[in-house]
Amino acid sequence: MDSFRDKIVPVTSILVGIVVVWYVFAVILNAPFQRDLDRRANVTPGVVEFMGKTLAQPKPTLPAPHQVAVNFFENTFLRSVTSSRSLVYNAWVTLSSTLLGFAFGTALGIVIAVGIVHVATLDRSLMPWIIASQTIPILAVAPMIIVVLAAIGITGLIPKALISTYLSFFPVAVGMVKGLRSPEFTHLDLMHTYNASRAQTFWKLRVPASVPFLFTSMKVAVAASLVGAIVGELPTGAVAGIGAKLLAGAYYSQTIDIWSALVAGSVVAALLVMAVGIAGRLVDRAMGGRAA
Amino acid sequence: MSSVTPRSWQGFAALALLAVAVLFWPIVHATPGYGIAAAALIFLLLLLAIAADNFPPAIGAILLFIGAHGAAWILVAGITGNEGTARAPFYLLLAAAWLLAWRCVTILSALRPTSRWAATALRLIIPAIFGAWILIIWEAVTRGAGIPFILLPPPSAIGARIANSLPILAADVRQTIFKAVIFGYVVGSGAGFLTAILADRVPFFRRGLLPIGNMVSALPIIGVAPIMVMWFGFDWQSKAAVVIIMTFFPMLVNTVAGLAASGHMERDLMRTYASGYWQTLFKLRLPAAAPFIFNALKINSTLALIGAIVAEFFGTPVVGMGFRISTEVGRMNIDMVWAEIAVAALAGSVFYGVVALFERAVTFWHPSVRGG
Amino acid sequence: ADKVTLQLKWVTQAQFAGYYVAKDKGFYDEEGLDVDIKPGGPDIAPEQVIAGGGADVIVDWMGGALAAREKGVPLVNIAQPFKKAGMELVCPKDGPIKTEADFKGHTLGVWFFGNEYPFYAWMNKLGLKTDGGPDGVTVLKQSFDVQPLIQKQADCISVMTYNEYWQLIDAGYKPEELTVFNYSAMGNDLLEDGLYASEDKLKDPAFEDKMVRFVRASMKGWKYAVDNSDEAAGIVMDNGGQDENHQKRMMGEVAKLIDNADGKLDPATYERTAKALLDQKIITKEPSGAYTTAITDKAIK
Amino acid sequence: MTGASPAVVSASKLGLTFSTNDGPVQALTDVDLTIGKGEFVSFIGPSGCGKTTLLRVIADLEKPTSGTISVNGMTPEQAREKRAYGYVFQAAALFPWRTIERNVALPLEVIGLSKAEQVERIKRTLDLVNLSGFEKKYPWQLSGGMQQRASIARALAFDADLLLMDEPFGALDEIVRDHLNKQLLELWERTNKTICFVTHSIPEAVYLSTRIVVMSPRPGRVSDVISSTLPKERPLHIRETPEFLAIAARVRDGLHAGHSYED
Amino acid sequence: MTGASPAVVSASKLGLTFSTNDGPVQALTDVDLTIGKGEFVSFIGPSGCGKTTLLRVIADLEKPTSGTISVNGMTPEQAREKRAYGYVFQAAALFPWRTIERNVALPLEVIGLSKAEQVERIKRTLDLVNLSGFEKKYPWQLSGGMQQRASIARALAFDADLLLMDEPFGALDEIVRDHLNKQLLELWERTNKTICFVTHSIPEAVYLSTRIVVMSPRPGRVSDVISSTLPKERPLHIRETPEFLAIAARVRDGLHAGHSYED
Ligand SMILES: Nc1ncnc2c1ncn2[C@@H]1O[C@H](COP(=O)(O)OP(=O)(O)OP(=O)(O)O)[C@@H](O)[C@H]1O
Ligand SMILES: Nc1ncnc2c1ncn2[C@@H]1O[C@H](COP(=O)(O)OP(=O)(O)OP(=O)(O)O)[C@@H](O)[C@H]1O
Ligand SMILES: Cc1ncc(C[n+]2csc(CCO)c2C)c(N)n1
Ligand SMILES: [Mg+2]
Ligand SMILES: [Mg+2]
């Protein structure tokens, strides 16, 4: 595997590339509005001055990277982490429901996959409805779920985590059904000759054989959990969390705030996905995995 | 009643529920409530079902089916006019019918029909019964407990709404699915796939692109959707862009994992042919990656739908499934909201089913398809 | 103290200053109430929250409340703090639309989620189709920001006098560069921000009494907020509002809608609203018992 | 020997037809066979004649499409459930995520042996197949022959009364093979196990077996059953005796009869 | 024969050490070897002695950790890129998503043969290994020996000048094996290919080879190189001649020397 140091150069150069493209687009996308402004104010700035202005709008269509960076820096490092405006605080709020939802979702996904693989009735009857469940747009039902849960006294972290769960169990279920069914026939036959119980075949064969599928699915699931947690923050009045920041930003057209919340979300996502990746690699190594 | 001897735990439980139901009589605390004939018929049907368990599987299953569903039908039909007044026996009888339907499904699942035709029929019937019971329980509980219409309408109302709104639903499907979803799904999955190949081909990109690809993974729709509306306008293009972003990551991750899935000996074999990168890719690594790639395609088939619908909550023309959902919530037409959801679920299932069929055809060799 | 849960229609902002002020200044305490204010958001339907038992009283627009009433959630208007509506349609003067006659063939941004009725009523009156054809207007479902105008995706957009209008000003438009069609001024307005509670619960005298005290304290809060607009904006900020300057301005504009802060519903406006909703088939039959003046009568003695 | 002892495997009119994308394949037809307790039966026959399939039917890994078969007087399924047999597959079928010792431990874990007993059996069987020192290696770190020996060790550790071995020594050199042949004979004599043994080596078959079943292909049939007249005690040099060579010749004839080559 | 023809494989002081979780494993040490054009060299040695590893080094599938090796006068990598050799793996390594004929077609597709040429070669090599009639089957529908034959057909279809064969006939019965031995010899004579052949069968090695390399294990070394004095023309019954048996005996001795068994 590539060491961290091997990655630094490529990651930074690609990031630099992205930033450059970003600046170009910032100028292009912000230009029309700036032209309008200038026209109404009856000024005709030079090209450089004009570009400078497009990169310094208070509510730009596409904020310039440095605007986002400054905002991100202020809200991350210059505020006490308990302040409701701190990105660290908001990221933490989101992260906590993400993790809880991810844990629920992974567990639920695995349970469903186990059921489908082992119980013919479930295999035939459950899958179509799970698929159907996933096509229900969460943002449409999230408020209803939260209303109903609030009515029976469940508030706070759990409702948000449940929306995360709802989004994250599916990738795990799909992946694990495949993974648990992926052992080779000779291996299944071998367990058969030992008259191994289903549980033994499961633990000793199906589970290890499913590991590549599990971790791949979990990467997708953890990302889905984060999306779910953010979505789940809206109908709770969006008081705290990355979703709340996004909403507040959107509501007041504070694009810079939106983008720095997006960056925060992406960083959290990348960290989560990498954490799952590292866990996967550790497990792979413990299983005698062979370098590709 | 003494002649009825259950054979399965579901049968026993159902019998016990019947007994308890008698203790807590009547079914609703409203007059007139259920007529004596209706109540007797419910009991008769349920007892018939319990007894049918002892018959040969095929006949038993048919009688169980008739008994459980007939009883449920009468029970639910009887609540009309008495909404919100159900008492314990209502739910107990419903539970008994459900247990017997479960028993029926268990028997059906165990059947190994010889003819292809019967096997296909069974494959359809079993999930249908399961789904029917979701709807029956939903109908019975919303009406029995009198749950406010604007919180959760009963499926019958949703069905009626669907039947009355076909042109609107069709227009919405056209806008959301045939424009945004399909385009976004193809481009997003394609982009994830190509990025994975690119990362695989060029080590520089592998190191640099994947960590950044991870960051795209969780760009929350609600954050991205308004931006996409800003960039691509309020019509379907911005929704397609959201779908692209949503479907990109699952495909990226799965393709990367899949490309690592081919065996060492097979790769060595291709090396001995001095097979070029692309030949090895197409002849060995992609076929070996297919199970992973199809996983992504399946997950994306539902994600794309969610993405497009949710993206329409932001700025849209006045047509589309997401538009309709958010608008009708505001108008308290929750039945229309659920009608759209039902259509989405149906479309999503068909979409998923098509992908799954392709998967079976393409990865026929994989143990999971051969029946591991 | 008696517990009351209030569900707002939107996020915390000066639009709801009266309630936050009443809570902050202890007006609710004085009435022996312990009020929990729940902020709303773009996907919270207060009607659903109250139907699910999540709130005792909600801030809602009459269109939504009457529609819910017809769907079996018996909402009753118990007070109407906002006497006038704040919704308007604005178009930049440098755009194609100067008067109502110019609409044909252009794109207009409209808020949905139950806020679209006044617009459709108006178009109806103008005899314009809204299906996007050449002899009608193209309707764009507008998100909760003013971007469609800035992006030139729409020729006119919906704003609230107290909120989005000022975002346009912040974005560099001068008031004289904007053409404003104010629904209230045109007589097309529907009643906004009223307080609604469940008819069933109101039958309980104890609950009714609680509502009387709640409305009394709330209106006291509104009066205070109108009189001390900057302080009120500060209180909103303390409760999670964003952008202090903006809240101050909003408070100023909201004050203009509040009028004399007695919270009494004007039956004539109610009749007009109900008729407009009926005309548009938002509701199918004449509502009855959808409002009561009993609460405000008792509250404002 | 056959007649007196109780039948461990008894097949009559056994047939198995695979259906494939490309028409049915008759892998076995009309196989009649009785194997008594304590017998050592070798199966020999051209590639693709159904040896593996027959073993798999005995092991309840494949259901016959016609005829009947019983194992220990029960159906193969019941016998399998009673853990009546150990099976060495033609391919090693080691779990790649387990080290060699953990692979050998697999059946022992399944039947729930104590840790101490497991350790003891793993050591003993790995010693037997000469893999001591490789306990902690993963399968892909072993040569082909070593993997095959690991899989033999795994089956021996399972220690069932009936051993089904599908070309266990195919990938082994002569010397290791001789060594393991001797070990297997010793084990068989000591424990009175019944062994069904597929091989391609005529000398091996003759050296080991009490009976040799010669099969012929398409459709797979039993073409000859040869009872060995060799004594139970068999030093390696017995392979040069005329008696041995006579049996070997008969097996070779039987094999040739089933083949279609003109040479 | 060795001296005159140009060296196809030439190794000197070749060594390869695997590092594993559990310490280094010396698979090859100090291997000196030259194989001339047109030679048929067999490698024989106890299981795990490094035969496969040596073949893999020649094929550029493994990099030596010491010493040097050249193939056709180039590095193994260059030779591989020039498609200098065909390789038959110890396991069949067929692609499960391809039918047998498509598996054989694989290398032909890679080198870009015309369809007609592909069809012709597939037919010829499948005939050669006696798999006609199984073209449309998938690998899992074939017996172990049939899979191995399919993989041999695949390598033969590739038709390189150097053939590296790792126990190609391990899972085959005597008769098929004899048949394929003869076919292989014929092919070799006709085409003047160079063949490196790993086997566990001493007679097979003696019958086929111009030279036999005997290896001994841990660490893998070349312990003896025996040049065959048999004529190039070899009928099957040459295996009973005293000359043949003498060479076989010498190979056997070499093998025994490398083994640690007391018997
Ligand atoms: N799963 C299967 N599907 C279809 N045909 C099969 C299947 N398994 C085996 N066969 C066919 O059955 C026949 C017998 O196969 P089997 O594996 O029993 O042969 P074998 O005697 O063990 O051969 P070998 O010595 O090569 O291992 C072969 O023709 C093979 O093609
Ligand atoms: N990838 C690997 N990692 C670590 N050790 C290995 C690896 N491959 C082979 N070995 C070790 O190298 C030695 C030689 O293995 P090799 O496969 O060359 O033997 P072989 O002579 O082909 O044996 P066989 O006849 O059993 O196939 C063995 O001890 C084996 O454990
Ligand atoms: C999704 C959605 N979009 C717009 C509005 C319109 N609206 C009604 S009150 C209010 C706050 C005042 O600025 C706004 C914006 C809404 N209710 N829901
Ligand atoms: Mg076989
Ligand atoms: Mg080897």
TrEMBL record, chain A:
<keyword id="KW-1003">Cell membrane</keyword>
<feature type="transmembrane region" description="Helical">
    <location>
        <begin position="126"/>
        <end position="154"/>
    </location>
</feature>
<dbReference type="InterPro" id="IPR035906">
    <property type="entry name" value="MetI-like_sf"/>
</dbReference>
<feature type="transmembrane region" description="Helical">
    <location>
        <begin position="258"/>
        <end position="280"/>
    </location>
</feature>
<keyword id="KW-1133">Transmembrane helix</keyword>
<dbReference type="GO" id="GO:0005886">
    <property type="term" value="C:plasma membrane"/>
</dbReference>
<dbReference type="Pfam" id="PF00528">
    <property type="entry name" value="BPD_transp_1"/>
</dbReference>
<comment type="similarity">
    <text>Belongs to the binding-protein-dependent transport system permease family.</text>
</comment>
<dbReference type="InterPro" id="IPR000515">
    <property type="entry name" value="MetI-like"/>
</dbReference>
<feature type="domain" description="ABC transmembrane type-1">
    <location>
        <begin position="87"/>
        <end position="280"/>
    </location>
</feature>
<feature type="transmembrane region" description="Helical">
    <location>
        <begin position="87"/>
        <end position="120"/>
    </location>
</feature>
<feature type="transmembrane region" description="Helical">
    <location>
        <begin position="12"/>
        <end position="31"/>
    </location>
</feature>
<keyword id="KW-0472">Membrane</keyword>
<dbReference type="GO" id="GO:0055085">
    <property type="term" value="P:transmembrane transport"/>
</dbReference>
<keyword id="KW-0812">Transmembrane</keyword>
UniProtKB/TrEMBL annotation, chain B:
<feature type="transmembrane region" description="Helical">
    <location>
        <begin position="91"/>
        <end position="111"/>
    </location>
</feature>
<dbReference type="GO" id="GO:0055085">
    <property type="term" value="P:transmembrane transport"/>
</dbReference>
<dbReference type="GO" id="GO:0005886">
    <property type="term" value="C:plasma membrane"/>
</dbReference>
<feature type="domain" description="ABC transmembrane type-1">
    <location>
        <begin position="190"/>
        <end position="362"/>
    </location>
</feature>
<dbReference type="InterPro" id="IPR035906">
    <property type="entry name" value="MetI-like_sf"/>
</dbReference>
<feature type="transmembrane region" description="Helical">
    <location>
        <begin position="59"/>
        <end position="79"/>
    </location>
</feature>
<feature type="transmembrane region" description="Helical">
    <location>
        <begin position="118"/>
        <end position="138"/>
    </location>
</feature>
<protein>
    <submittedName>
        <fullName>Nitrate ABC transporter</fullName>
    </submittedName>
</protein>
<feature type="transmembrane region" description="Helical">
    <location>
        <begin position="211"/>
        <end position="234"/>
    </location>
</feature>
<feature type="transmembrane region" description="Helical">
    <location>
        <begin position="34"/>
        <end position="52"/>
    </location>
</feature>
<feature type="transmembrane region" description="Helical">
    <location>
        <begin position="303"/>
        <end position="325"/>
    </location>
</feature>
<dbReference type="Pfam" id="PF00528">
    <property type="entry name" value="BPD_transp_1"/>
</dbReference>
<keyword id="KW-1133">Transmembrane helix</keyword>
<keyword id="KW-0472">Membrane</keyword>
<dbReference type="InterPro" id="IPR000515">
    <property type="entry name" value="MetI-like"/>
</dbReference>
TrEMBL record, chains D, E:
<dbReference type="InterPro" id="IPR003439">
    <property type="entry name" value="ABC_transporter-like_ATP-bd"/>
</dbReference>
<dbReference type="Pfam" id="PF00005">
    <property type="entry name" value="ABC_tran"/>
</dbReference>
<dbReference type="InterPro" id="IPR050166">
    <property type="entry name" value="ABC_transporter_ATP-bind"/>
</dbReference>
<dbReference type="InterPro" id="IPR003593">
    <property type="entry name" value="AAA+_ATPase"/>
</dbReference>
<dbReference type="GO" id="GO:0016887">
    <property type="term" value="F:ATP hydrolysis activity"/>
</dbReference>
<dbReference type="InterPro" id="IPR027417">
    <property type="entry name" value="P-loop_NTPase"/>
</dbReference>
<comment type="similarity">
    <text>Belongs to the ABC transporter superfamily.</text>
</comment>
<protein>
    <submittedName>
        <fullName>Sulfonate ABC transporter ATP-binding protein</fullName>
    </submittedName>
</protein>
<keyword id="KW-0547">Nucleotide-binding</keyword>
<dbReference type="GO" id="GO:0005524">
    <property type="term" value="F:ATP binding"/>
</dbReference>
<dbReference type="InterPro" id="IPR017871">
    <property type="entry name" value="ABC_transporter-like_CS"/>
</dbReference>
<feature type="domain" description="ABC transporter">
    <location>
        <begin position="11"/>
        <end position="242"/>
    </location>
</feature>
<keyword id="KW-0067">ATP-binding</keyword>
<keyword id="KW-0813">Transport</keyword>
